[in-house]
Predict the structure.
Amino acid sequence: MDNHNWRYPTVQKRWERAPWQQQQTPPLSLTLAELAQYNGKKGMPAYIAVDGVIYDVTMEAAWAAASHFSLRAGQDLSGPYRACHRGQGILARLKVVGQLR
Amino acid sequence: MTTLTQAKPNLLWLELTGCSGNIISLLDGAHPGFIDLVTSLVNFRYNNSLSAGESSDAMDQLLATLGTDFILIVEGAVATKANGRYTVIGSVQGKPLTALEALRLLGAQARHIVAVGSCATHGGMSAAAPNPSGCISVQQAVGRPVIQLPGCPCHPDWILGTLTALLEHGSLELDERHRPRLFYGNLIHDRCPRRSFFDQGIFARRLGESTCLFKLGCRGPVTRTDCPTRQWNQYVNWPVEDNTPCIGCAQFGFPDQMEPFISYDIT
Ligand code: HEM
Ligand code: SF4
């Protein structure tokens, strides 16, 4: 039995119940320059793009301060993502908010 | 404390390119403590900060352990530029002995090599950009498996617990990054007493507030240590409970990849 890497059970977070999380906004279509504004600072949410899909990492624990292992939100991070997380299925758990144009 | 079943091996503690933070941290150990280490566990033969011997006497004592049964603890990164001349640990017959040479010499013979502190395990502070002395990790420099005990500094229990396990059982369970699972098995975020604040979305906006420090840049969610349960300074406290975010000092890439350490403008 593998009892290592114990993880805290997933609970529904308060912000997931919040109206702004539930409301079905139409998917965004952003250029790279527009994506750069979503840097997670001063009221802007933190978005990142991998392989053309834009994800919301504003409330991702591993992305504290809209940053993760020197990466900053507001960018296309396809290359770095593949370098460290290929095949780990992490993206499937992130919230999709749109596509790169 | 019970006496070990095996004969006591020699222990060498090399300090390479670092700040002596780990040997100081070791002295704060309590259960077992430093006195237990030197009286019951090992013959502690060499450490540059603690040795009574100086200059060539100290070097003689270090080199006399070659050919014996010894465990090598290394703190600090390995400077490689200019053939390692950025870090000289002593002189032998009038010739400077670089940290790089000493490590290769002793590392080839040690029963175990234990890299203590983030400079030794990954380069850490010493290898931070622009890395003027070309520092690399102990593992990279010796080219043989090294037990990795990251942390800035390393907790005395992680050092003494690892040593005790090695002496009593010959080995201990390591994860895929060669860290003992006993101490590095869980994410800080998964054992944090402030986790319920995270789950409820209640975040500190300033240092000193007693809720979740996520929005200030807490690296607990990407760092594996037992700080929340073990705590520091003989088990009294740890950064988050002192209202300051985890800076990921035990994660690879520290410090550069764990920055920014503190932010006040996060949504
Ligand atoms: C688009 C880029 C990236 C995204 C979206 C991403 C996302 C994530 C997420 C969501 C987690 C938490 C996983 C969990 O809860 O199980 C995580 C963990 C982690 N990420 Fe990334 N990541 C990215 C890039 C990188 C890169 C470039 C590196 C390498 C430097 C990296 C290294 C890590 C490590 C080491 C952990 C796990 C820490 C641990 O559990 O011990 N990530 N990442
Ligand atoms: S303070 Fe840090 S480790 Fe603790 S719950 Fe918040 S983000 Fe996680």
